[in-house]
Structures are given as C-alpha cells and as structure tokens.
Write a structure and sequence with these properties.
The structure holds two protein chains of two kinds. Chain A has one helix and 23 strands. By secondary structure, chain A is mainly beta. Chain A starts with 8 loop residues before the first strand and ends with a strand. Helices cover 5% and strands 52% of the residues of chain B. Chain B has three helices and 28 strands. The longest helix of chain B is centred in the N-terminal third of the chain and has 9 residues, at 4-12. Classes of the chains: A mainly beta, B mainly beta.
C-alpha cells in the first residue's frame, strides 16, 4: 500500500490571469492529474510543474514533458509536449492547452518525462529527469480555488523505456506508484444536506483499470451506523459522482464516509471528495483514505 | 439459494435519482395514533419494552449521548421517568424479567445492568463481554431457571455468552463462534432449548445457532444472499424466518422446517428493508427509510402492502401492546434520526395505501 504523496501547499503564480498555487509532492518520471476540466479560461484546471534534470548530477540537461488528455473512459483525446530544463517551472493551464472542442469535457491528464530536447526525438521515457506537480481548479468568476490532488509517479507504462510518449492510449499506463492498489478499501468522505445547493459533495474516482459498473458498498454516517448501498461508476477510469444520488442512502445520512473495497482487477486507484459548504464559504478537497 | 439474477436486474436500475422522502406532517404533528419520543436529538440504536397489566416501560439507548432513557406509558401518554449515563456509546438494551435492564455498551466491559428505582437507573453490574456489543438478548438458555445474556458484536465473528448466576449477577463473557457481524441477534424458538438466529452483515448469510446446553452454541449457515441481511423475524413456532435485505429490491422468507431451508423472495417497494417484525395475525412489518411497510396476504391470495411514515431510519422494530388496549402497536427505534416513533394499533387501519413507485 502506498501513501499518496501530498505535502503542504505553497502558493505560486500560474498564468492566464488565474490565481496560482502549487503543492510540493514527490519527483518521478511523471504524474497524473486525475480530474481535469475547463469551461474557458475563467474556470479551468491549472497545473504547476517543477522539473529537475539529471538527478544527482550537476549537468543541466534539457528534457521534454509529454502530456496526454484522456476522457473518462480512457480514450485518447489530445496530446502535446513542452520543454523543460533543470530547476525549471512550467505552468500548464488546461484552458490554454486543450485546443478547440474540449470545453466542458471531463478527463484526466498524464504527464511523462522524456530525454528529448525541445520535444524532438524518439519520445521515450527517461529516468534522467524528474518532475513534480500541483494542481487546482480555478474559478475566477466565483473567486474560488479548489485543490486538485495529483497522483505522483513513477509511472509504469506498457513497453517501459521503449514506450512512445506521443502515442499513449488507454491501456498504456498500467500502474502508478502514488495511487492505492486494488484490493484495498477506499474511505470516501461525504457531507451533504439532501437538497439542491447547500452542502454538496462530489466524489472523484480514478483508476488504471476498468471501474465501470454498479458497486455495492457500505455507507456510514457520523454515528458509526452503516448500510449497504449501490453506487454506480459510469466510466472506465474516471468518475465524478454525487453521493446524494446514491440509491438506498438513508435521508439522515448526511455526514460520513463510503467504504469501497476496490476490486483486485484494478491495479491503481485514487479517490477524493470535493465538499462545497456555504457555511464555510469554500470548497474543500478531502483525500480518500485507504486501508 | 441466491437471488443473483434478480439482484443484478435491480442493481442495474439503481442509477435513478433518489428522491428525498420528506418527514410527513402526520409525523411532525403527533396524532392520537402516533407519537414521536424525541430523545435529545440522539439516534436511538435500540431498546426494549416491558409491560405489566396496565403500564409499559420503554427503554431506549441514546447512542451519541452515551445514555439510556426510560419512558413510562400509561395508556398512550409517555412520561420520561429516568436516564443514566453509560461509559460510552450504548447500542442496545433489553429488560430482564425481574425489571432490571441490560444495556450493550461499546467498551470492553460490554453489558451494563441497571435497576430502575423510582426515577433513577442504578447500575448494578458491568459485565465484561470480551467484545464491543451491538445487541444483547436475554433468555434462560441453559435451562437452569436463571436468565442469561448473549451479546452480538459491532464487528467480528464471535458472540459473548454470559450465564446468569444464582446471586443475580452474570458471569463474564466467553466466546461463541459466529458468522461475520451478526448485528441483530434474535432468539429462535425451539422445543428443547432456545436457539439463536441472525442475519450476518459481512458474510451475507442467515445463520442459526443450535443450543447444545451449558453455553455451547453451534452455528450453521442456513442461507446465503447477494445482499446484506440486516435483521430477522421468526414465527412463534420457529419454523419460518423473514429476512430484511438491505438492497436488491426484496426481502426473503426462509422455511427453516425444510431440509435444506427453502428461500423465497418477498417483494419490497424500493431498495429493500433494514428491519422486520411480525404481527400476531401474520402481517409483516418491514423497516425502511422514513417509513415502515406492512405486508399481508389478502383473502384472494394477493399480496397487500401499506405504509406508515416514521421520522428516521426505521431499524430496529418492536411489535408490542404498548397502550395495553389489547391491540398490537409498533415501536420504531430510529437508529438514524431524532427519536422513537410509536404507532398505536390497529396498524393496518392507520396505514396508508402504498403508491406504485420506481424500484431503486
């Protein structure tokens, strides 16, 4: 079982007129931003990336970071690349990078390092450079920022060092170290009020395996009481669901957690809850615990 | 017998929006047929009613508050007469025949035994159970003429056997093998010694314990389900059991007199049930969320269902003549909610016709 590498947040300026901040995690050959969406530059996922080249060596070796955007069913949508050098920082604002046609489309981003210079070369993974990232969902209209946890690498890709980072598909990423493993139980927080607006929660479930289907889980309230319920994951690798709509949830279960025994067929899984509470006037991100 | 095909079909339909069922006005405003015993905003995980010819005492555990409270019913009028703190969260309570109250408390000590003296509950003994108890049941299981206690765990695969002593106390618990998480342990009537029966939440079985005497209970699995069996009701002769299944859109009837036991689905109007009890005329009472379902077979053989609204998550249930008028009443301990609902009989006449609704 791996602990999700999330450390203290440190704010830093991104670009495109959005407030910027980032979180220091671990450095590796890549990472995943598990829940990405934009509705124009005023409501977008923003990612800040720190790059280190030639770990343990003073040589300032340029490298490239290839990114791929997948939809919720892990279908490759679009990709790109940007160069980095040692001690470099790159701000990646999804609304600026997505290109046309991706507004309102939810998915996830995979970032991977190559030894290529200026995105020219064979686009193969490398261990000679490492990256770390933090991410936020920035809504300038609401003047709100929600922390988006990043799933740290190392990435395990089909083909290992011979993978082609320009042609990754939904099966390319087989495992990622910063996520939990299948077979563990995920504990996903909810805080709701059963009404439209008010206290709302959305739970993000991302995995490297096919998670699609109806899962029978136990839902607990804030009083140790449990009940089994069915929650539906409608997509293969990324879902964003509302626990208020979970069939069989007792109406008085408004604060608690859902315990999901992740199938062993899923190699890596990552969950978090986004809780919006007018009482606090803020959106909070709560990482799913695992055991 | 498994219901995999039925469960699959119903599970596939589970993605529909879940409407919030509001607390009905008939629950907000107490009617002569209904009372809500508000209990300091605490969820009532369980309790028990004990009656003499004219009055009844209703004990309820206030889980979050860490207390047990007692109401006296003279007719339909409840008066809160006593309350006592427990060491930690109490999960359940049962009256002993001599008027003492056994309370399952989630600590290593297990069962607190209180005596009601005037307006006070006086703790007489803390019985180490060896587990964190979810329920406690009371009967003379070993045939020595003294009541004994058996506790079921909040989680785990053991029961705790606490035999009654001649001095009125109880021996510390010894472990009895069990299925996984038999939350709502019930007594199974038997010709010789009373046995035990429970739905087991974590291995999804209906398990029966044969009572071999001297505290020896042997569990045997009599049915397995695709969904979590939360509660069981048993016919007075012990030959038939009804099982509240949390999901799947149905409950189950298990004919224990057959070998092997025969399992038959029992319809549910929504996602399933979380509690079950039985009226003396054979009408089933099923607990759901914010309502109980009454179910009986009409003279023409059709299944009839009616509904009584309640204020919370209706588990567990107890059928008892609380107002001593000779007609059965229903006590609903809402393990999520704000108190105890009481519906006075005749229950079927007070219940509302059930509208057709979408299966969840």
């Amino acid at each position: 079982m791996k602990k999700i590498a999330i450390a203290a947040a440190v704010s830093v300026a991104l670009s495109a007129g959005v407030a910027q901040a980032y979180q220091v995690g671990t450095f590796s050959n890549g990472f995943v931003v598990p829940n990405v969406i934009h509705n124009g530059p005023s409501d977008t996922t923003a990612v800040g990336i720190i790059g280190l080249s030639k770990v343990g060596d003073a040589v300032d070796h340029p490298f490239s970071v290839y990114w791929t955007f997948f939809d919720q069913d892990s279908q490759h949508q679009t990709d790109g690349c940007f160069p980095m050098t040692n001690n470099d920082f790159h701000s990646f604002v999804w609304a600026n990078e997505a290109g046309t046609g991706y507004e309102g489309k939810r998915g996830y981003l995979l970032f991977a390092v190559s030894a290529d210079q200026n995105c020219k070369g064979d686009a193969k993974p490398t261990g000679d450079a490492t990256i770390s990232a933090s991410a936020f969902q920035v809504n300038t209209a609401a003047q709100d920022v929600a922390f988006v946890p990043v799933v740290d690498g190392p990435l395990t890709l089909v083909g290992d060092d011979n993978a082609n980072l320009t042609t990754l598909d939904g099966n390319s990423l087989t495992k990622i170290k910063g996520a939990a493993s299948g077979g563990t139980t995920m504990y996903m927080r909810y805080a709701i009020d059963g009404k439209a607006g008010g206290d709302d929660t959305r739970i993000v479930v991302w995995s490297t395996g096919s998670q699609k289907g109806t899962h029978t889980v136990n839902i607990y309230n804030d009083n140790q009481l449990r009940k089994s319920v069915n929650f539906v994951l409608a997509h293969d690798e990324l879902d964003w669901f509302d626990p208020e709509q979970v069939a069989g949830r007792p109406a008085d279960y408004t604060d608690g957690f859902i315990a999901w025994a992740v199938p062993t067929s899923i190699s890596s899984v990552f969950t978090y809850s986004v809780v919006s509470s007018p009482a606090f006037g803020a959106v909070q991100t709560l990482l799913g615990a695992h055991n | 017998m498994r219901f995999s095909a039925i469960a699959l079909l119903l599970a596939l339909a589970a993605c529909a929006r879940v409407p919030e069922r509001p607390v009905p006005d008939s629950v907000r405003t107490e009617t002569s047929a209904h009372r809500l015993l508000e209990a300091d905003q605490a969820a009532i995980w369980g309790g028990d009613v004990r009656c003499n010819e004219r009055t009844c005492l209703l004990a309820a555990v206030l889980h979050e508050k860490g207390a047990v409270a007692v109401w006296r019913f003279d007719g339909r009028i409840p008066v809160r007469v006593a309350e006592a703190a427990t060491a930690y969260h109490p999960d359940h309570a049962r009256w002993l025949a001599d008027g003492r109250l056994a309370v399952a408390v989630e600590t290593g000590l297990g069962i607190d035994v209180f005596r009601l003296q005037g307006d006070s509950l006086v703790r007489e003994q803390q019985v180490p159970a060896g587990l964190a108890p979810r329920t406690v049941i009371v009967a003379d299981f070993d045939g020595d003429g003294i009541e004994d206690l058996i506790a079921a765990p909040y989680g785990g695969k053991s029961l705790a056997w606490m035999p009654g002593r001649a001095d009125g106390g109880f021996a510390a618990g010894t472990a009895v093998p069990a299925c996984a998480t038999p939350w709502h342990l019930k007594i199974l009537p038997a010709a010789a010694r009373p046995g035990l029966i429970a739905g087991c939440l974590d291995d999804r079985t209906l398990t029966v314990w044969d009572n071999l005497g001297s505290g020896r209970f042997v569990p045997r699995r009599v049915a397995s389900f695709d969904n979590v069996p939360r509660d069981v009701a048993v016919s007075p002769d012990g030959r038939m059991a009804w099982v509240a299944l949390e999901l799947g859109g149905h409950g189950a009837r298990v004919d224990l007199s057959r070998t092997p036991p025969v399992v038959t689905p029992v319809p549910a109007p929504s996602w399933g049930y979380v509690a079950v009890d039985l009226l003396s005329d054979g009408t089933l009472v099923w607990g759901e969320d914010r309502r109980v379902i009454l179910q009986r077979i009409a003279a023409d053989g059709r299944m009839e269902m009616r509904m009584l609204p309640v204020s919370g998550f209706a588990t567990p249930l107890q059928v008892v003549d609380l107002d001593r008028d000779g007609v059965e009443d229903l006590v609903v301990y809402n393990s999520a909610g704000k108190g105890v609902d009481v519906w006075f009989g005749p229950l079927w006449e007070h219940a509302e016709p059930l509208q057709s609704e979408e299966k969840k």
